[in-house]
Amino acid sequence: MQMRRGQVQKVRFSTHTTGHDDSVSTHHIASFELDGMAVQVVAGRPLMMENGDEVVVAGKIRRGVLMGVACNNLSRKILDHRGWMVSLLVGVVFILVGLVGTIGAALEHSPIGAAFFLVFAAVGAGAAHGGMQILRAKSLVLTGA
């Protein structure tokens, strides 16, 4: 997890909408430079920032871009981050179902069933890990300020 602090420069905003009919999801994206590094922050609501705002961003660097999952705008006193609760809860549920299913399949001597439920648990572990990473990033931008 990387953290950067500095003044926002060259800020641009966009949205990414997915889904259809009744089920539509919109992500709000802020792209900007922070001390010469390209940064992109995605959130569930519009990000409030302008050029010159002092921010702290935490995330992972991918292809030279800091992909921020948490951003603390010190100038405006606004904290933005990706949603962590759904990832964490879905992850825990998948892990529990996967483990119970694996045990049940093993008791029934079904190696294919056990393998299926182990994959289910692994997907859950990935989702839970993602939620924990967002919480970690949120903590970093709050304490790193």
Characterization of the model:
This protein folds into 2 domains: about 80 residues, OB fold (Dihydrolipoamide Acetyltransferase, E2P) (Beta Barrel); about 60 residues. Helices cover about 40% and strands about 40% of the residues. The chain has a 5-stranded mixed barrel. A hairpin with a 4-residue loop joins strand 5 and strand 6. The radius of gyration is 19 Å and the shape is elongated.
Class based on secondary structure composition and strand pairing: alpha+beta
Count of extended strands = 6
The portion of residues forming beta strands comes to 35-45%
Name the strands of the widest sheet in spatial order. Answer: 1-2-3-5-4
Whole-number total of structural domains:
2
What is the level 1 CATH name of the largest domain? Mainly Beta
Report low-confidence residues grouped into runs of 5 or more. none
In short:
This protein is an alpha+beta fold and 145 residues long. The chain has helices at residues 85-107, 111-143; strands at residues 2-20, 23-34, 37-43, 54-62, 65-73, 78-81. Strands 1-2-3-5-4 form a five-stranded mixed β-barrel.
